[in-house]
TrEMBL record, chain A:
It comes from Hymenobacter mellowenesis. Gene3D superfamilies: 3.30.465.10, CO dehydrogenase flavoprotein, C-terminal domain, Uridine Diphospho-n-acetylenolpyruvylglucosamine Reductase, domain 2. This is Xanthine dehydrogenase family protein subunit M. SMART domains: CO_deh_flav_C. PROSITE patterns: FAD_PCMH.
UniProtKB/TrEMBL annotation, chain B:
InterPro entries: 2Fe-2S-bd (IPR002888), 2Fe-2S-bd_dom_sf (IPR036884), 2Fe-2S_ferredoxin-like_sf (IPR036010), 2Fe-2S_ferredoxin-type (IPR001041), 2Fe2S_fd_BS (IPR006058), Aldehyde_Oxdr_Iron-Sulfur (IPR052914), Beta-grasp_dom_sf (IPR012675), TAT_signal (IPR006311). Pfam families: Fer2 (PF00111), Fer2_2 (PF01799). Signal peptide: none annotated. Keywords: Iron, Metal-binding, Oxidoreductase. It comes from Hymenobacter mellowenesis. Gene3D superfamilies: 3.10.20.30, [2Fe-2S]-binding domain (1.10.150.120). SUPFAM superfamilies: 2Fe-2S ferredoxin-like, CO dehydrogenase ISP C-domain like. This is 2Fe-2S iron-sulfur cluster-binding protein. Residues 56-132 form the 2Fe-2S ferredoxin-type domain. PROSITE patterns: 2FE2S_FER_1, 2FE2S_FER_2, TAT. CDD domains: fer2 (cd00207). It comes from the Bacteria.
Length: 326, 210
């Protein structure tokens, strides 16, 4: 691994300044993805700014929502009483991700900033426009079993690996950011971006901006929720495809719905049209199947991931059925 | 040695040149480095300048013993334990956070020591497999692994046991299914899983303090 300088500021502003004045600097929190990428030579920061001493771990009520500090550990959020009561979908998604050890290290902000698990991104001997802009996309004509069916471009067909982010986009979360130009807020749905012609940019974070917290507004989705994750072993694997589903039921009638998919696009994929198709419908398998058909409109497969075109709607129906019965 | 082929060059030419380079590079380095490093350099230990830039002080408590160390930032916690402290019980399996062989407790929480830089744990308390037993008396989880044959080759075992202890402490050992889910971060290629689950259930049901 390359050598690097290490600093450990205790104030957010000092951390932002330390990254701002060095183009090759990076923040490090849990490190579960960055250390991995550094060992493989995929990322080679010359300076690491350790933000673990910043006071950004609280989980607290703010107005009519919940604010989760960017450094709150994935395990702490999943076990938090307020999270389980107000946003059980988030707890389910978090516990579907990684392993207990990794959830004890990974933070909320770091989870959002995970890089793709595309094998071509990880292998420095392969072309990858995300790792090395202009070098080409190895996955496009390669082994693309894990890859996107929505929102891809001819430059990149990678998917975002986070489970937590699928729940957060479904729950209409907001991201709080702090940077050299001050603080700002970003809708969670606008945090991650599609690859387009610049797949090297995963998110709309500006250089040296720091995620300080995520806010989730109160919602009626406190009971009928489910996170359906399909993977190649029972646990501890990235999603082939996942679905976050939440229903607000009046008797058996759907008053409101939230649906999002993971493992299908360069960002957590909110299914707004399918949500609309569920409103006013009875919570039946037939209605779920109609919504799933709406959700899959525009999906396109590559050579090895055609299975996702069938797995997608099946997982949506399964997630909605389980949510309705919860 | 034969006669000096360049008699008009002073015999100590090379030495002068080296001294000059040493001094000038030291001055350049001094202009660029932070104060603590400068003080090290002022002690006329120019070789130590580079070392000071690379290494960072680190205080740790490992298995109850305090350490004051100086480490390169790129040293992982796993490598520090194995290479610097010679605590070889913690194993390096994949080194990429995919197998769990390197599981240790940091401040009582189980983590993958391969995916963490040691310097990030300044002031923290680490427990490794070597810190689990009470002298010659095995920890109940170690005894249960022996009793239930919770291993074959044994390479994953330190990580399995550290993870298993945490699993019970966290309250995630309520059923065989829950144990399987919460032990999923520890891979055993010999396939001793069913015996590992039995060992954890035994400890959980035995109600001993873990």
């Amino acid at each position: 691994m390359n050598q690097f300088q290490y600093v450990r500021p205790t104030k957010a502003q000092a951390a932002i300044d330390a990254v701002a004045k060095d183009a090759n600097a990076a923040f490090i929190a849990g490190g579960t993805n960055l250390v991995d990428l550094m060992k493989r030579g995929v990322m080679t920061p010359q300076k690491l700014v350790d933000i673990n001493r910043l006071p950004l771990r609280q989980i607290e009520r703010v107005g009519t929502g919940l604010r989760i500090g960017a450094l709150a550990l994935n395990s702490a959020v999943a076990d938090d009483r307020l999270v389980r009561e107000k946003h059980p979908l988030l707890a389910l998604a978090l516990n579907a991700g990684a392993s207990p050890q990794l959830r004890n290290m990974a933070t909320v902000g770091g989870n959002m900033l995970q890089r793709t698990r595309c094998a071509y991104f990880y292998d420095v001997a392969m072309p990858c426009n995300k790792r090395q802009p202009g070098s080409g996309c190895g996955a496009l004509e390669g082994i693309n079993r894990m890859h996107a069916i929505f929102g891809f471009s001819d430059k990149c067909i990678a998917v975002h690996p986070s489970d937590m982010s699928v729940a957060l986009v479904a729950l209409d979360a907001t991201v709080l950011l702090s940077g050299p130009k001050g603080d700002r807020k970003l809708a969670f749905a606008d945090f991650h971006r599609l690859p387009g012609t610049t797949p090297e940019r995963d998110t709309n974070l500006e250089p040296s901006e720091l995620i300080t917290a995520v806010e989730i507004p109160d919602s009626p989705f406190t009971r009928h929720v489910h996170y359906q994750k399909v993977r190649e072993r029972a646990s501890y694997a990235f999603a082939l495809l996942s679905v976050a589903a939440a229903l607000d039921l009046d008797g058996n009638t759907i008053k409101a719905a939230r649906l999002a998919m993971g493992g299908v696009a360069h960002k957590p994929w909110r299914l707004a049209a399918a949500e609309q198709a569920l409103v006013g419908q009875p919570a039946t398998e037939a209605a779920f199947q109609r919504a799933a058909a709406v959700a899959m409109q525009g999906a396109k497969a590559f050579k090895h991931n055609e299975y996702k075109l069938r797995l997608g709607p099946n997982a949506i129906v399964q997630a909605l059925k389980t949510a309705a019965a919860a | 040695m034969a006669a000096n082929p360049e008699p008009d060059v002073p015999a100590n030419h090379n030495e002068n040149r080296r001294t000059f380079l040493k001094q000038s590079s030291l001055l350049t380095a001094l202009a660029l480095v932070p104060a603590p490093v400068v003080s090290a350099a002022e002690a006329k230990l120019d070789e130590r300048v580079a070392e000071s830039i690379e290494k960072v002080p680190l205080s740790l408590k490992v298995n109850g013993k305090k350490y004051k160390l100086s480490v390169e930032p790129r040293t992982t916690l796993l490598d520090l334990l194995r290479e610097n402290l010679h605590l070889n019980g913690t194993k390096k399996g994949c080194d990429y956070g995919q197998c769990g062989a390197c599981t240790v407790h940091v401040e009582g929480q189980r983590v993958n020591s391969c995916l963490s830089f040691a310097v990030m744990h300044d002031g923290q308390e680490i427990t490794t497999i070597e810190g689990l037993a009470d002298g010659d008396k095995l920890h109940p989880m170690q005894e249960a692994f022996v009793k239930h044959d919770g291993f074959q080759c044994g390479y994953c075992t330190p990580g399995q046991i550290m993870s298993a202890v945490a699993c019970v402490r966290e309250g995630h050992a309520g059923s065989a299914d829950e144990i399987r889910e919460y032990m999923s971060g520890n891979i055993c290629r010999c396939g001793a899983y069913s015996n590992i689950v039995a060992a954890i259930q035994d400890v959980k049901q035995g109600g001993q303090k873990v």
